[in-house]
Write a structure and sequence with these properties.
InterPro entries: PC_trans, PC_Trfase_euk. One of its GO terms (molecular function) is phosphatidate cytidylyltransferase activity. It is an enzyme of class 2 (transferase). It is a multi-pass membrane protein. About 25% of the residues are buried. The termini are far apart. The chain has 19 helices and four strands. It has a domain at about 420-455. It is mainly alpha-helical. The protein has helices at about 30-35, 40-45, 65-90, 95-115, 120-125, 125-150, 150-155, 160-165, 170-185, 190-220, 225-250, 260-285, 285-290, 335-350, 355-365, 380-400, 410-420, 425-440, 445-455; strands at about 250-255, 255-260, 315-320, 330-335. Strands 1-2 form a two-stranded antiparallel ribbon. The chain has a two-stranded antiparallel sheet with strand order 3-4.
Length: about 450
C-alpha cells in the first residue's frame, strides 16, 4: 500500500512554469446546466444516447382550430343558457325574477369595470363600496315599487309591512341621500375628476341597466307573455339578421357596426313578424302565459286563473271603405293580440337593435372587444342583453298605453281606504260594505251584530 505524500504543493495561476492558463473553474449550478445542455454520457446516466427530459412545446393553434374551439364552446353554453332559461320559465315567476336580478347585477358589474382605473381605485378606499351601495339602494326602490303596486292587498294589511309600504319612497330617497353625502365627504384633492366621472358613470349604468330591468320585471308581473314574447322576438331578429346578412347582405346599414346590412335588417324583420305570430298563437292557449301573476308560487303545472285581458278575446272588425257588393269580405274576426304582436315585432326589428349599436359604440370608445367574459364563447352578459333591456322597456310602455285595462283592484281600494280615510271612516266603510254583502246573502246576518258590538266598544 502506497504511503500518502506529504508537503505536496499545488501550482497556482501565477506559478505555472509553462505559462499555460488554468482551465476556468465551474460552479455547481453551471455544471448542472452544462450537464443538461450536453448529450448524456454512459458514465453519467448509465446508458448511451438518452435524451433530455424536457418535452417540446405544443405547436400554436391555427386560426381554424381557434374558431372551431370557440364554436364548440359557444354552442355548449348556448344550450346551457337555453336550458336554464326554460327551466326558470316553467318553474314560476319567482325564478324568472331571480334570473333577471342576476343578469342586471352581472351587467352592472361589467359596465362599471370598463370605466374603472384600478390604480386610482386602490388609493380611494370607498369607490367600489359606493358603487354597490348605489346599486343596492336603486334596487330596493324599484323592486319595492313593483311589489307594493302588485301586492297591495298583502302589504297594506300587515302591521309590520304597512309602514314600509306607505313610506317606501321617502325611505328610498333618504338611503340615496346618505350615499350622496358619503360621496361628497370622500372627495380627495387630486382625484376630483376621476371621482366625479365615476359618479356620473354609475348613474348612467343604473339608468340603462337597473332602471330598464325594473320594467322587464313589471312585464313578468303583468303576464309571462309580455316577458317571453319580447325576449323571443329579439333572439329571432338577431338570428335571422345574421343569416340573411351572410346569405345576401350587400349594403352597409350603419357605420358603428360595419357588419350590419340593409338586407339582413329587412330580412330579419320579415321572419320576426312571421315567427312572432306563431309564438303568440301557441302562448295564448295557456292561462299560465296570459294571466297576471297573483301567486308567486305558481308554476306551469299548477297554472294560473284569471279573467283574460280583452286582447285575448276574438273581436270582429269591419273595414269601412270596402263596398258591400265586392266579393272581398269587409268583416274580419281575430284576437287583437295578433295585431299587437306585429307592432312589437316591428319594434324588435327596427328599434331594439339600436341598443346593440349603442353598446358597440361604447366598446369602440374604450377599445374593447367584449364587456367581459361572464359567458364562455359569448363574451359578457351585457353583450347578450343590450337589445333585451331596450325591448323590455318598449314593451312595458306599449302595454301600459294600449293594452292594460285600468280598473279598480282590491289593492287600489285598500290603499285609498287606509291612506286616505280616518279610522272612523274606515269603520263606516266596513259597516256599509258588510250590510251590502249581508243583503246579497254573501255573508251571514250575524256579522252585522258583531260589527255593531265592536263599533260600540
Amino acid at each position: 500500500m502506497a504511503k500518502p505524500r506529504k508537503d505536496v504543493k499545488f501550482q497556482h495561476r501565477g506559478s505555472n512554469p509553462n505559462n499555460k492558463a488554468r482551465r476556468p473553474s465551474m460552479s455547481v449550478s453551471e455544471h448542472s446546466e452544462t450537464a443538461h445542455s450536453e448529450p448524456s454520457s454512459p458514465t453519467r446516466n448509465g446508458h448511451a444516447g438518452s435524451k433530455s427530459d424536457e418535452t417540446p412545446a405544443p405547436p400554436p393553434q391555427s386560426d381554424y382550430e381557434k374558431k372551431l374551439q370557440n364554436f364548440y364552446t359557444r354552442t355548449i353554453w348556448t344550450f346551457v343558457m337555453l336550458g336554464g332559461f326554460f327551466w326558470a320559465l316553467f318553474a314560476g315567476h319567482l325564478y324568472i325574477i331571480i334570473t333577471i336580478t342576476a343578469v342586471q347585477i352581472i351587467s352592472f358589474k361589467e359596465v362599471i369595470a370598463i370605466h374603472a382605473v384600478p390604480s386610482k381605485a386602490r388609493s380611494l378606499r370607498f369607490t367600489k363600496s359606493l358603487n354597490w351601495y348605489f346599486l343596492g339602494t336603486t334596487m330596493y326602490f324599484l323592486y319595492g315599487e313593483s311589489v307594493i303596486y302588485y301586492f297591495k292587498h298583502i302589504l297594506l294589511v300587515d302591521r309590520i309591512l304597512l309602514p314600509l309600504a306607505t313610506h317606501h319612497r321617502f325611505i328610498s330617497f333618504m338611503l340615496y341621500i346618505f350615499g350622496f353625502i358619503f360621496f361628497v365627504s370622500s372627495l380627495q384633492k387630486g382625484h376630483y375628476k376621476f371621482q366625479f366621472s365615476q359618479f356620473a358613470w354609475i348613474h348612467m349604468a343604473l339608468f340603462l341597466i337597473v332602471g330598464q330591468s325594473h320594467f322587464v320585471i313589471n312585464n313578468v308581473f303583468e303576464g309571462f307573455i309580455w316577458f317571453f314574447l319580447p325576449v323571443a322576438l329579439v333572439v329571432t331578429n338577431d338570428i335571422f339578421a345574421y343569416l340573411c346578412g351572410v346569405t345576401f347582405g350587400r349594403t352597409p346599414l350603419i357605420k358603428i357596426s360595419p357588419k350590419k346590412t340593409w338586407e339582413g335588417f329587412l330580412g330579419a324583420w320579415f321572419f320576426t313578424l312571421l315567427l312572432g305570430l306563431v309564438m303568440t298563437h301557441l302562448m295564448v292557449r295557456s292561462k299560465y302565459f296570459i294571466c297576471p301573476v297573483n301567486d308567486l308560487g305558481a308554476n306551469v303545472l299548477s297554472g294560473l286563473e284569471c279573467t283574460p285581458n280583452p286582447v285575448f278575446t276574438p273581436t270582429t272588425y269591419v273595414v269601412p271603405f270596402l263596398p258591400s257588393g265586392l266579393p272581398i269580405p269587409n268583416t274580419y274576426t281575430f284576437k287583437p293580440i295578433y295585431f299587437h304582436t306585429l307592432v312589437l315585432a316591428t319594434f324588435a326589428s327596427w328599434i331594439a337593435p339600436f341598443g346593440g349599436f349603442f353598446a358597440s359604440g361604447l366598446k369602440r370608445t374604450f377599445k374593447i372587444k367584449d364587456f367581459g367574459d361572464s359567458i364562455p364563447g359569448h363574451g359578457g352578459m351585457t353583450d347578450r342583453m343590450d337589445c333585451q333591456f331596450v325591448m323590455g322597456t318598449i314593451t312595458f310602455f306599449y302595454y301600459s298605453s294600449f293594452i292594460a285595462v285600468n280598473h279598480a283592484t282590491v289593492g287600489s281600494v285598500l290603499e285609498a281606504a287606509i291612506t286616505g280615510l280616518t279610522p272612523e271612516e274606515q269603520v263606516e266603510v266596513v259597516r256599509i260594505l258588510g250590510k251590502n254583502l249581508v243583503d246579497r246573502n254573501l255573508l251571514p246576518s250575524q256579522i252585522m251584530e258583531y260589527l255593531q258590538v265592536q263599533v260600540k266598544r
